[in-house]
Amino acid sequence: MSKKILVTGGNGLVGSNFKGKKNYVTWGRDHCDLRNKYSVEKSMSEEIFDGVIHAAAKVGGLGGNMNFKGEFFYENIMINTNVIETARKTRVENLVCFLSTCVFPNDVEYPLTEKNIHMGPPHFSNDAYAYAKRMADIQIRAYREQYGLNYKSVIPTNIYGINDNFDIENGHVVPSLIHKCYIARETNTPLTIWGSGKPLREFIYNKDVAKLTEWVLHNYNEDEPIILSTSEEISIKEVVDMIIEIMNFKGEVKWDINKPDGQYRKPSDNSKIKHYLPNFKFTPIYKGLSETISWFETNYDKIRGTKNQSIVTSQQ
Ligand code: GFB
Questions:
Q1: What is the rounded distance in angstroms from the CA atom of residue 123 to the CA atom of residue 251?
Q2: Is 76 touching ligand 1 by the criterion CB < 6 Å?
Q3: For a Cys staple, 61 with which of 68, 172, 184, 313, CB 3.0–4.6 Å?
């Protein structure tokens, strides 16, 4: 029998990269309600999976995390608990679970490493989501210890790319900025950016995350999560400048300092992934942004976030 890998969040930023790939089965919301234990048990017992890439989550950017704390906590706890437990019950031996860079403490020594996830409270802006994700790390470690399963987690830094949610208020920063720039250009209005533009982030292209995750699934087997990161910091202002250039926006840019900046920095240590894959070539951000923007402009009418679809139902 051919060995199949289940990918949850199959329409999302990470999961959609596995669509149509040989031996991969991608599930979106339409296939199974992962918040519901019975729905997950029913769907997962209908097929035999050799491995699971668990990329589904209720996600959003800074706005979404601040506006929907209750939903982000509840849904992520339920989704992770159900998927990981049902994978165990249906005898899946190998699973990769997605954590997020926001799991790290706010007040911690830099760079962030796999060792310091639980060493203090996360930043208040996304604490509900962060604690729900931290519990997935606990669940994975517990299952490894008690059941001896090859379950593990990855911690990507800020992911961007096609198939994200481009909602202006609640989306991740890159798709929100692309969508805002598009509207400003099309309507001849100023482009308004949240915060000061000074915060630094490490952006990683979704296609790179998918490639690295596939490697992790087949080759990594440790209690500690593994950070997926370029470890190259870039300011929000620099990202805005690139988007403006690629989208050929000539209008006025305004900075709304009444909007939150979030954490100032979250520099990560990528030495573990570098150690295992020293020759991995990360996509340069300008190239990744260009591809994402080109896809956005071509598919504007049919993508998430451009037609008032709510972030509340999005998946990673
Ligand atoms: O929160 P953050 O790491 O990314 O950083 P996501 C967003 C930065 O971009 C902040 C600024 O400094 C914001 O002030 N910014 C400027 C904007 N304009 C905008 C805008 O229109 N939308 C957004 N969202 N930010 C997530 C976390 O958020 O990052 C998630 O909240 C997750 O929990 C992910 O960990 C990695 O806004 O993309």
A1: 34
A2: no
A3: 172
